[in-house]
Amino acid sequence: MASPPWLRNLSAAFKAHRLGRTGWYLEVNRERLRVVSTELPPRPGDEPDQPHKRRAFTLQAAPGPATSAAALSEACGIFDAVMAGSWTWPDSDATPPTDDPEHLQPAHLERLARQLESKLVGEQTTARTWERSWAPFLRRLVKGAVERRWGDDAALLGAYLRHWEANTRHRQLAHDRARRLWKEAGWPWPEDVAPLRGNGKAAADPRGVRSFTDAETELLRARIVASARLTAADLVAWDCLIVFGLRPQELIGLALKASPSGAPLAVVSRLKRSSKGTTRPRHVPAVPPAAWPADCFRLLARWRTHGLPDWSQSAYSPGSHMSQQLRRLQMPSGLTSYGLRHAFALRLGLDLGLHVRESAELMGHSPQVHLAAYGRRLDGPSLQRKVQQLVAGRGGQ
């Protein structure tokens, strides 16, 4: 695999410092940057007959464009010391990092967090992802270190993890973020902390996904209509999620038209990219709750008159905006804008009886994703009916 541009530039600058002297390299190995050369002196304990063995020394600077200057300075310092004959391998019996007087100090943890941020942002994640799914956990860890003086790592980490409910996704993320920080510092991870991570599946709702009921959908529409802050265009956006089962992000670029029967038809052009692939544009017919009229309360006419709200086209995350609206409308806890998509999926399977492949096609994801999300709710009723019929048939034999 080709080296990233920052590593090629760093290697060129290192070569210029060496005045073209060959036999020295910079490489990334297991998320660490290291200097490699046959001119590095033998390590203590190396065989004496291997003076020109290729050896590697791991730098303190993290790999990435933000730390290239520090890495170059460190690599050049090693090269100069080796050429002068004064460089030696660090003493492996030196005081371990956990005895560092700064160990577990809030300021030190903050520096480590900034160091980790410079390594990850731009290389493995975006700045926005860092702020949403990394920074809050690390800030909580630093806050815990401020509250008192901790005797050991396990005590601090245990108190930190218990801030979140057991067997939740948030506690799992908190555990993984802290462990990544400990790896950055080179500190051993206390094994006693591992059981606190828990299993997110153990806390899963036995009913499956939390979807809107028909009554909750009607309550939502009534509160939107009565709201002084929300507009007719806002109601159009919410109705589109209800009857087409859209992701909030798919409101961007959404167009509506009439189907041959005259019912609304959504033309979804927004693509979703993930590690599992990219969705393609699709046409989705309206599937409203059973009590709704076929025209979905004149949805197509309202869309032509009012359009979609500006925030649905310009917001980085329409879903976050809609979650704020749900809170302002004081809807029951646990409901999110995705709950309307879940309700749409259940209508397709339970009310219309569509096959999993057909439902997945309309929703813009794979059958595997559909089964993972909705299989428990879709299979349960039919499985119960099948068992009851088999038991009844057995009794008549």
Written account of the structure:
It is a single chain. Helix 3 runs antiparallel to helix 5, helix 10 packs across helix 11 and helix 10 crosses helix 14. The protein has three domains: 80 residues; 105 residues; 172 residues, hpI Integrase, Chain A (Orthogonal Bundle). With 397 residues, it is mainly α. The strands form three sheets. It has a three-stranded antiparallel β-sheet, with helices on one face. The protein starts with a helix and ends with a helix.
Features:
3 domains; single chain; 49% helix; 8 strands; mainly alpha; elongated
Radius of gyration (Å): 29 Å
For the biggest β-sheet, the strand order reads 1-2-3
> How much helical structure, as a percent, in the residues?
40-55%
- First-residue to last-residue Cα separation: 68 Å
Layout of secondary structure:
Layout: H1 5-17, E1 24-29, E2 32-37, E3 55-58, H2 68-84, H3 106-120, H4 127-133, H5 135-147, H6 153-161, H7 169-185, H8 194-197, H9 214-226, H10 232-244, E4 255-258, E5 264-268, E6 273-274, E7 277-278, E8 282-285, H11 299-306, H12 310-314, H13 318-328, H14 338-351, H15 356-363, H16 367-395
Antiparallel strand pairs: 1-2, 2-3, 4-5, 5-8, 6-7
Briefly summarize what is shown.
The protein is mainly α. Helix content is 49%, strand content 8%. The longest helix has 29 residues, at 367-395.
